[in-house]
Amino acid sequence: MLKLCSLRIFNRLSRNNLVINLRRSHSKIGVIGVPFDKGQLKGGVGSGPEAFRNLGLIEELQGLGCDVKDFGDVTYEQIEGLIVKNMTALGHIAACQKEVSDSVIRIINEGRMCLTIGGDHSCSIGTIDGHVKAKGNIALLWVDAHADLNTNATSPTGNVHGMPVALLAKELSDYWPYLPGMDWQQPRLSIRNIAYIGLRDIDSYERLVIDKFAITAFGMEDIERYGIIEVTNMALRRIDPNNNLPLHVSFDIDSLDALEAPSTGTPVRGGLTLREGIQVMEESYRTQRLSAVDLVEVNPGLGSPTDVKITLEAAKHIIRAASGHSRRGQSPENVLDLPQQTFHSVSQSPHNS
Ligand SMILES: NC(=[NH2+])NCCC[C@H](N)C(=O)O
Ligand SMILES: [Mn+2]
Ligand SMILES: [Mn+2]
């Protein structure tokens, strides 16, 4: 009796879920590739977009029922002679990220979710700038082993992929010198609207800034304590308490454990499992306000062919979750029943043989 009862409840629940499953939001996606590697020193990360295209990413998203428009790869011309202390390749960063920003504005204004394939994490200077310009204000989830919160005065490396959050945050504008070539980029995002997930390799000045400005930051120990779904939802509530802001998820593949995503420039062990990465994206998608996603720091030039394959596959699962793919599976569209079969004679039925 108990069994029958719970079975009925289950059937009712799954019928309701069927209705929910049939409602596909966010099937309109615009994709840009940013084959950019000048935010750090290792070659190879610039071939990320090509590797994802060769893997059939666009076709795969179309196969999920998404309306995908590929806007191709961003190109730019380096600005000569831009020199700022402890900030490598500013002439490349300034020129390329301006183009990225313009592309993101175009895609968002077409009513598409913007999916940006990097490239190193300096690409998010452009994507977030464009997103804010198109939408006014946004909430940002930064999923990363690193805080990417250095200025040129605090960075231990001078690599700009470790600086994008500090360039974007309004509260840090006084801590920067004048940056030639970057006049198009103003710090437009409040620290209140930024949260980190996955941190585990933070420089000392980054720690100081996180504490000084009380930035919402969930490290691995918080994920262990509360679980990834609770952490993601706590982060979303903090950065968007009224549930009304467009959501940007900037996903550095090194947020995943180095065993799950080995082909990346600054791998750190003790990170998210692929399942946890997927869950961050599923919860983000569930808000129905996921408006831009960056997938960065996949470097097909690092590691063995197997390492590269594992990393690309992991990234693909993250992107699928961001595009609305559900691990529960998806019923065929506008179909409510199995195909009926008619048999001409009883003997033809497989059930009678
Ligand atoms: N996007 C990344 N993988 N960033 C790594 C940054 C590493 C270090 N914190 C730096 O400033 O150079
Ligand atoms: Mn990182
Ligand atoms: Mn990063």
TrEMBL record:
Cofactors demanded by this protein: Mn(2+)
Domain of life: Eukaryota
Cofactor note: Binds 2 manganese ions per subunit.
Pathway assigned to this chain's UniProt record: Nitrogen metabolism; urea cycle; L-ornithine and urea from L-arginine: step 1/1
Annotated protein name in UniProt: Arginase
Keywords from the UniProt entry: Arginine metabolism, Hydrolase, Manganese, Metal-binding, Urea cycle
SUPFAM superfamilies: Arginase/deacetylase (SSF52768)
InterPro entries: Arginase, Ureohydrolase, Ureohydrolase_dom_sf, Ureohydrolase_Mn_BS
UniProt catalytic activity: L-arginine + H2O = urea + L-ornithine
Any one cellular-component term (Gene Ontology): nucleus
EC code(s) of this entry: 3.5.3.1
UniProt xrefs under Pfam families: Arginase (PF00491)
UniProt record similarity statement: Belongs to the arginase family.
Organism: Zootermopsis nevadensis (Dampwood termite)
Any GO BP: L-arginine catabolic process to proline via ornithine
Residues that, per the record, bind Mn(2+): H121, D144, H146, D148, D252, D254
